[in-house]
C-alpha cells in the first residue's frame, strides 16, 4: 500500500501531509466528524490545536475529553483543564452550573468512543493506511504478535508492533505503558508508523482495551484469538463479560469519520 494514497489536503491549502505529520489547528466541526454531539454547532469554527484526556497535558487551545478511567472520573479534572487553557470540553455529563456559558461544552453519549473518533480525525485516520492485525486471548498474545511480526518483516513489510513489551514504531521503540494504548495515544503511534513508511501494524488487543473502546474505529484486516481462561475477573466481574470483551475484536470495533469498514473482517 502506498503511503502517498492517504496524504491529506489541509483546508484551503494545497500542501500535502502524511497522517500525524504535525497538524495545524483543526476546526472543531471537522474534529467531531462521526461523533454524536450536542452543543457543537455553535462552535464549529473554533480551532483546536491539540487533544488531551489527561488535564496535566492540557495547553492553550486543547480539546479536553473527560473520560471515565478505571479509578477516577475525568470530569473531576475539568476545572484544572480549563485553568490550563482548554478551549473546549467533551463530556458525557451536562454542563455544570459552575462552568461559564462561554466555554464550549460538547455533550456526547459515550466519551470514550468520542475520544477515539476525535483522535482518528485529528491524526488523519492512520489506521486506514495500515493493515492492522489484532491478537487477543488470555495467554500467548505477546508470543503470537511477535511471530506475526517476524513473518511480515520476513516478507519485506515495514511493521509497527504495539504490545506488552514495547511499542515499536517500525525503527524506534517506546516504553509500553499499557498492553494496548489509550485511543488517543494509539492513533498517535499509528501515525508515527505511517510516517516511518509502515505498511502493517500488529497490536495486542487486551480485554481491558476492548471493553474501554481504545480500539474503537480501527479496521482490523486480521483478528487472532489464542485462548480464554478464567482470568481478569476482578475487572470483568463474570466470565461471560470477559468473553464478550474478547469477542468485540471479531464483531467489529466500530467506525469513525471517513472509515467505512473496508478492511474489517
User: What is the mean pLDDT?
Assistant: 86
What is the subunit organization of this protein? single chain
Low-confidence stretches at least 5 residues in length (pLDDT < 50)?
1-15, 257-265
Q: Sheet bearing the most strands, described? A: 6 strands, mixed
| Number of DSSP-assigned strands | 14
- What's the helix count? 9
Class of the largest domain, according to the CATH hierarchy?
Alpha Beta
Radius of gyration over all CA atoms, rounded: 18 Å
CATH topology of the largest domain: UDP-N-acetylmuramoyl-L-alanine:D-glutamate ligase
Strand coverage percent:
15-25%
**What is the annotated CATH architecture of the largest domain?**
3-Layer(aba) Sandwich
Helix content: 25-40%
Q: Which descriptor suits the 3D outline? A: globular
| CATH homologous superfamily identity of the largest domain | Mur-like, catalytic domain
Kindly give the count of domains.
Answer: 2
Class based on secondary structure composition and strand pairing: alpha/beta
| Widest sheet: strand ordering | 12-11-10-13-9-14
How far is the first residue's CA from the last residue's CA? 18 Å
| Succession of helices and strands | EEEHEEEHEEHHEHEEEHEHEHH
Amino acid at each position: 500500500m502506498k503511503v502517498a494514497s492517504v496524504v491529506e489536503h489541509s483546508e484551503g491549502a494545497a500542501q500535502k501531509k502524511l497522517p500525524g505529520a504535525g497538524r495545524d489547528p483543526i476546526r472543531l466541526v471537522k474534529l467531531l466528524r462521526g461523533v454524536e454531539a450536542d452543543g457543537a454547532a455553535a462552535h464549529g469554527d473554533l480551532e483546536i490545536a491539540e487533544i488531551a484526556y489527561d488535564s496535566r497535558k492540557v495547553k492553550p487551545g486543547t480539546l479536553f475529553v473527560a473520560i471515565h478511567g478505571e479509578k477516577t472520573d475525568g470530569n473531576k479534572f475539568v476545572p484544572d483543564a480549563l485553568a490550563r487553557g482548554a478551549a473546549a470540553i467533551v463530556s458525557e455529563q451536562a454542563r455544570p452550573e459552575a462552568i461559564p456559558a462561554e466555554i464550549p461544552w460538547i455533550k456526547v453519549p459515550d466519551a470514550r468512543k468520542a475520544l477515539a473518533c476525535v483522535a482518528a480525525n485529528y491524526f488523519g485516520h492512520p489506521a486506514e493506511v495500515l493493515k492492522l492485525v489484532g491478537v487477543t486471548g488470555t495467554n500467548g498474545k505477546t508470543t503470537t504478535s511477535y511471530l506475526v511480526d517476524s513473518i511480515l518483516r520476513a516478507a519485506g513489510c515495514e511493521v509497527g508492533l504495539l504490545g506488552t513489551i514495547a511499542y515499536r514504531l517500525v525503527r524506534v521503540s517506546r516504553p509500553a505503558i499499557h498492553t494496548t494504548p489509550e485511543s488517543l495515544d494509539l492513533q498517535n503511534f499509528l501515525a508515527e508508523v505511517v510516517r516511518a513508511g509502515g505498511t502493517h501494524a500488529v497490536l495486542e488487543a487486551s480485554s481491558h482495551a476492548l471493553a474501554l473502546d481504545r480500539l474503537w474505529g480501527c479496521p482490523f484486516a486480521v483478528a487472532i484469538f489464542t485462548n480464554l481462561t478464567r482470568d481478569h475477573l476482578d475487572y470483568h466481574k463474570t466470565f461471560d463479560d470477559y468473553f464478550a470483551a474478547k469477542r468485540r475484536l471479531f464483531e467489529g470495533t466500530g467506525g469513525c469519520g471517513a472509515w467505512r469498514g473496508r478492511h474489517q473482517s
